[in-house]
Design a protein that fits this description.
Blueprint (H helix, E strand, L loop, with lengths): L2 E2 L4 E5 L15 H13 L4 E4 L3 H4 L3 E4 L5 E5 L14 H16 L3 E7 L2 E2 L2 E2 L14 H18 L5 E7 L11 H18 L4 E3 L15 H7 L3 E3 L22 H13 L3 E3 L12 H17 L4 E5 L32 H15 L4 E2 L6 E5 L5 H14 L3 E5 L9 E7 L7 H14 L2 E6 L7 H5 L1 E8 L3 E8 L2 E8 L2 E7 L3 E6 L4 E8 L2 E6 L3 H6 L14 H7 L1 H5 L3 E3 L4 E7 L5 E7 L9 E3 L3 E7 L10 E8 L1
Parallel strand pairs: 2-3, 2-13, 3-6, 6-9, 9-10, 11-12, 15-16, 15-17, 17-18, 18-25
Antiparallel strand pairs: 1-14, 4-5, 7-8, 19-22, 20-21, 20-23, 23-24, 24-25, 26-29, 27-28, 28-31, 30-31
Helix pairs in contact: 1-3, 4-5, 6-7, 7-10, 8-9, 10-14
Length: 630
């Protein structure tokens, strides 16, 4: 979606510098004022904040004879002021916080149900042994809290958006997506009952596209107004195999944000990102990681970027800070409140946004739809995103159970098994090829297709279990390229009327193109995307094999239509068409070293720099241009 520059949310996740998760019960207005002043001076225009559920709804259950329930009260047997059991003192403290944020022109994303934080549960005492997602008593108190809290806080102008909570899918286990859906819908409905004027964000962690998973992207897209990603350099999304400021790790935060937005059908933002530990990357590397995600996310439709978090908490002695080594030194300011390199990067990005000579960044041009099959969602989708970027074009995503939009290119990555796609999807994309001239690319590792010969122009000679390394010799763009691969089950085939683009050492067809009606079908005989996903250090080495050329082959027409292309594959280019027939171009260096992007401008256009240079783009940074017709 288009991005209004003034609405781009840039900042941090916030617990105060003195008390961390205990900030509400150890409330210090002077600390909060100083914290927010420093953040504002560092270019922060938005912070995500957390009313600790334990402190805001301190309801205690009193029992009588034989452990039977008698009544609810506040701690120390004090009567509650009303049936919501929300502490009015905490509400007033949060109100002061909102007024301080407004004083410093900081917008607030309020993560309402903060029952999970940094590896610890913070629940009201009455439900401390309950499942907060499914237990009826917990659900009752959740609804009471949300309505009372939102009803009080909604009057403060600094509140920009509501968040369901902080990674609430970590609060308790569910047995089905029905339970997850019901919880999220209940919270969202309670928010809207009190305030229907502000957007609701998801705030979730590690959502999935598969139809049989519990916490699903499609459900959050239906229930909330904005999808959120929390893409650290971590195994959650497979971005822990390379250093945080090198390709693969630098691509994945943007890829996941596009993935959530596309499948969820709602805008998305990078809501959390951090460095975890200086052992995973020094402070300059963390700055690079953030800087690349800021400019790349902005270029690819992310509506904001928030670092985790504002201040270091090395001095704190309460859990969760005593439990984990990765929860103590995550701030953009150190313990002395001195800015780290990441703080200066946020300031620089804020100044860049303020300097842009346009108010709206149009949506990027999309060339292809990646349809994730039943067997592989994120692994295939993430690598498809990277290979498309390296080839020079952009993709969007759909799950195979969803309605598929019209497009000039379809990518179905790494299919496996007997049922990779529904018939409706398969028939739709074949119709787009046959009758509308689209290109269809399918990579397969044991995946089965109906009308195989008719569609691919190949005849099967059977399949055999493999698991050994092969080498394919590809004839691509006038040169021969040899690329290694491994597949679990090798398709043996011969060409009938397909054009063979690659064979392996045994002479078996690896890559073929077949004319199908007005378009072409490309079949790759191994699961390229899942192979690269499971292979470490594939993208970060300086001599990475050019797997992207497989994608460039089926995207030739789309690439020729591009206004600007980069000569270096580490440079990603997004093209944002404007109403006057021109375009805004954003180039991103996904590597850690300065690079000459070697920009190739389509005949009839000229580039004018808006930010940065066309000669050199520093590592993990970008440049912005106007592309105008001559």
């Amino acid at each position: 979606m288009a991005t209004k520059i003034k609405d781009f949310m840039l900042g941090v996740n916030y617990w105060d510098s003195k008390s961390g998760t205990d900030m509400w019960k150890s409330f210090d207005p002077e600390v909060i004022d100083d914290d927010l002043r420093r953040l504002s001076e560092s270019g922060v225009n938005c912070i995500r904040c957390f009313p600790n559920w334990r402190d805001f709804q301190p309801v205690v259950k009193l029992l009588e004879w034989a452990g039977n329930f008698r009544e609810y009260r506040f701690p120390d047997d004090k009567p509650a002021p009303d049936s919501s059991y929300v502490d009015p003192v905490m509400l007033e403290r949060f109100g002061y916080f909102c007024e301080t944020a407004e004083k410093y022109n900081i917008r607030l994303i309020v993560s309402i149900v903060t029952g999970w934080m940094s590896g610890r549960l913070f629940l009201p005492p009455a439900i401390v042994n309950k499942n907060p997602i499914t237990d009826p008593e917990a659900l009752m108190f959740t609804r009471k809290f949300v309505r009372r809290f939102v009803g009080f806080v909604k009057k403060y102008p600094a509140v920009y958006a509501w968040d369901l909570g902080n990674e609430c899918n970590c609060m308790g286990q569910v047995s089905s997506f029905h339970q997850a859906y019901t919880w999220a819908a209940m919270v969202a409905d309670a928010i809207r009952a009190e305030d229907s004027t502000r957007m609701i964000m998801s705030g979730m962690h590690g959502l999935e596209a598969a139809e049989n998973k519990s916490w699903r992207i499609i459900d959050q897209g239906e229930i909330t107004d904005m999808m959120t990603t929390h893409p650290y350099s971590s195994p959650t999304i497979g971005s822990d195999s390379d250093p945080m400021n090198l390709p693969r790790t630098t691509y994945f935060p943007t890829a996941q944000t596009c993935y959530y937005s596309s499948i969820g059908g709602k805008p998305a933002m990078i809501q959390e990102q951090g460095g975890f530990s200086e052992m995973l990357g020094n402070l300059d590397m963390a700055r690079d990681f953030a800087r690349c995600s800021m400019i790349s996310g902005f270029a690819n439709g992310s509506q904001g970027y928030l670092w985790w978090c504002a201040f270091e908490h090395l001095h704190l002695s309460q859990p969760p800070y005593t439990w984990s080594m990765v929860e103590r030194e995550l701030g953009i300011f150190n313990s002395a409140k001195e800015p780290k390199p990441i703080a200066r990067a946020i300031k620089a990005f804020s100044e860049m946004l303020d300097s842009l000579p346009f108010d709206v960044l149009p949506d990027r041009k999309i060339d292809a739809v990646c349809i994730t099959p039943s067997n592989s969602q994120w692994p295939g989708a993430s690598i498809a995103f990277v290979l498309a970027k390296q080839a020079g074009f952009d993709i969007t995503f759909r799950h195979f159970t969803q309605s598929i939009p019209e497009a000039p290119i379809y990518i179905i990555p790494s299919i496996e098994g007997w049922a990779p796609l529904y018939r409706e999807v398969y028939d739709f994309v074949l119709d787009r090829v046959e009758n509308h001239g689209a290109a269809l690319y399918i990579s397969t590792d044991s995946g089965l297709l109906t009308t195989f010969e008719q569609v691919t122009g190949l005849r099967s000679l059977g399949m055999r279990k493999s698991g050994v390394r092969n080498t394919g010799h590809f004839k691509l763009d006038g040169e021969t390229v040899s690329l290694d691969y491994i597949c679990n089950k090798e398709l043996l085939s011969e060409a009938i009327d397909a054009e063979v683009l690659a064979k392996n050492d045994a002479g078996n067809v690896v890559y073929a193109r077949h004319s199908y009606g007005k378009g072409y079908v490309y079949l790759l005989g191994f699961g390229l995307e899942t192979y690269l996903y499971n292979r470490n250090l594939t993208f970060s080495t300086g001599n990475m094999p050019p797997y992207y050329k497989i994608y460039a082959e089926f995207a030739k027409e789309a690439l020729e239509a591009r206004i600007v292309r980069a000569g270096d594959t580490i440079i990603g280019v997004t093209e944002h068409p404007t109403d006057d027939g021109n375009a805004i171009i954003i180039t991103v260096n996904y590597g850690d070293k300065p690079l000459n992007p070697q920009l190739k401008v389509k005949e009839g256009y000229k580039l004018t720099s808006v930010y940065g240079s066309a000669e050199t783009i520093e590592g993990c940074n970008g440049a912005i241009f106007f592309a105008e017709r001559i």
